[in-house]
Amino acid sequence: MTFWLAFDKYMNVFYRNIKAREITDQPIFYLAILAIILGVQLFLAGFLGEMMTTNAHKQNEYIIAEKIQNEN
Fold this sequence. Notes:
It is built from 2 helices and no strands. The chain has 72 residues and is an all-alpha fold. The protein has a domain at 22-57. The mean pLDDT is 85.
């Protein structure tokens, strides 16, 4: 299928003299850039959240030297 699409594009541009559109003239280009930016941001937010939760349990570890009895 990829070969067929590439061949059809080649035939349209060189033999039928149909002008190819620039990539920046197509709205899908800007949607792809937006999707890449959002994907990177979501990945980094998840990665930072994962790092924070990994280190969060270490903050609640207490070292107890001795136990004090309550005499009430």
